[in-house]
Amino acid sequence: MKMNGRSVITYSVYTPTNVTTMLRPRRQDGQSVIREGFEIDPPVPFSEYTDIYGNPCQRAVLPVGQVTITTEVQAQVNPTKPIPVPVPGYVMIGDLPDEVMHYILPSRYCQSDLPEINKLAMEIAGNFKPGYDQVEEIRKWIHQNVTYQYGVTDSTTTALDIARNRIGVCRDFTHLAIALCRNLCIPARMTVGYLDKLQEMDLHAWFEVYIGNDWYTFDAVQQQTEGYRIEIAHGRDAADVAMITQFGNATLQSLHVEVQLLEPETEEN
Fold first, then answer.
1. Are 177 and 203 in contact (CB under 8 A)?
2. Alpha-carbon Rg of the chain, whole angstroms?
3. Taking every annotated instance into account, which residue ranges of this chain make up the domain Transglutaminase-like (predicted)?
4. Counting beta carbons within 10 angstroms of the beta carbon of residue 45, is it exposed (0 to 12), middle (13 to 18) or buried (19 or more)?
5. What is the pLDDT along the chain (269 residues), one digit of tens a residue?
């Protein structure tokens, strides 16, 4: 299936501001980028690099005034990978690949080593079979017990805050899920990008776990994990996959996101 994603971000910039962005899609198995665009208005030079997780990143200095960053992508994507039968099991720590090991450690927003997180993880999933069954139980519990609402959390909100307050947005749902999974020694990472099945369209965050010697997608915002996705970036938590990181005096004014699936009979040539 071909899928389009577009985001338009507008800033008011008060002093020349260095930024790093993660707005271009990853090129990886299951996601073939057909075309993409990245534009800053007014035009300024920008450079690109790849971070330690393989995410494409951009660097620029935004000029004073109103600045708009527009990104567009069309990609050939598959539906969210179904869970096989029998379901994937837990991978012993000694059998994890080296590059997966840091996804079982606590991180800035996912304090998986705290007693309060451990208590909640055991209450939710302690009696379930390690692996897929535990992860899915965590995903369902968050969906059923955490309220989705804008404007009540911010860039300082952690998994522990959500465990206590039980209200937030996709980033918060994902941080709590990651912390609970890691507490059970299941590697988990945060992924951000476009999803076609959202009631309120935005750039979205979900989580992936390493079970059965592969990465699988889980989404606590959805009633069940489904849909088509374009992945932009993944990392340990939001600190690794921030859409824009700024080093200066600038204020986000608006973010507009569009997602479109192109059915076979209407696909562009």
1. no
2. 19
3. 162-222
4. exposed
5. 999 999 999 999 999 999 999 999 999 988 999 999 999 999 999 999 999 999 999 999 999 999 999 999 999 999 988 888 899 999 999 999 999 999 999 999 999 999 999 999 999 999 999 999 999 999 999 999 999 999 999 999 999 999 999 999 999 999 999 999 999 999 999 999 999 978 776 899 999 999 999 999 999 999 999 999 999 999 999 999 999 999 999 999 999 999 999 976 444 44
All domains of the chain in start order, with CATH: 2-78+243-262 (2.60.40.2250), 93-227 (3.10.620.30)
The two three-digit tokens of residue 251, written as one number: 């204020």
**Closest to 235 in 3D by CA, of 19, 56, 58:** 56
161 and 176 in contact (C-beta within 8 Å)?
A: no
Q: Is the pTM above the cut of 0.85? A: yes
Candidates 172, 97, 176, 93; CA nearest to 130 is 93
